[in-house]
Amino acid sequence: MCARTFTNFLIVYFAFISVLNVKGENVLVTEVFEIVINPSMFNWTYEGDPPDQFVYQPSLLDAPDLPSWINYVYSNKHHVGYLYGVPPEKEQHIILEIIALNRNTYETKRVVLPIYITQKRYPAKYEVQLKIDNLNVEDMFDVERMERLKDVFRKQLWKDSDEDLYVTFLASAIELGARLPLNPKEGEGVVLRLGSQSPLSMELQELQEEVKPLWKRVSCPRDYKRTTVERFFRDAGFVLDWCAFRLLDDNSSAMQHSQEKVENPSSLLEQKLPDNKWVGIARKDVPQRNYTHEFLVTILVPMFIMTLLAIILSLILCFHHEGISKEMVHVPIGEMTQYATINRVTYTLRSLSNQRDFACLSPEMYAGVRSHTNSPTSTISRGVHCRPSPPPYVKPKFSAEF
Asked: Whole-prediction pTM value?
């Protein structure tokens, strides 16, 4: 019985050792690490059709999710997964479990990956925070691209950091509260910090004074502000959001806040990014707006103005009517009689004119008009005061000699 138990233990032990065939990863406190998850980790060959042939699910061993200081992102461009983060000071080692699925064959494999955390010998005391608009997090894992960014500081802005410049923080701008770009082809944006033990240079301090008026804005457009050092970053392929540019001294170094990154990342952002207004806030902190005042101004004020104008117009018409009535009362009787006499004479002259026109009509037309006349006793006669018609026009005849 004991022999069988021992045999089973050996089988389980060697099976466990066979799973732990991946070498452990050594990471440093306060420094961003990167672990690439690709098909070769599972002894698979990438066939390239479909592009998302392999699916990865990393987590803590015997746990449903990753620790808070480790992030995972899958790159559709490179077709690999990335584990990245900044290890805390209190941790010493953890074990990750990565499950992979081949969608073509539905084959599943499992890899256990130990991670060993060690203290960095010379942690950064000074940091520079940047927000890059045209890139994503996975783009910053390109070694050549990261070296170009570091060279801008090591050769132009922060020459004393040539020996120990490294990345102390890396996160997607979307995770920190920024909005997705309108164009899906554009980068989502990435926030990172470069740290060193060397004090901040005079060039960096002058640059911060130059962009400090932009801190009151939520986010700067890509072409909103061109700084004096813009050409260095543009030539290296980086489009910076200068509204998020900050210099962090030794009071907010990566070493002192490495513990806070694990316990409360949002509090770290509030302490290290006091003016970074694009960081998301909780729903309970969103201010409530009362629309009662806007409703009263929008509805009642136009109604009051319309009512006032109607009252004024009614008063004007009323006074005007009373003025006309008063003028009619004061008109003398003689003028009214004269007006009636002139009206009668005008009517008589108009009637005589109509009778004259009827007299010049032909017998047929005269009979038709008389049948429709209101006065059957009309004495209009044919030919009275009527001019005879002119003779017809005849073309003159001329002799051929003329």
From this structure: 0.59
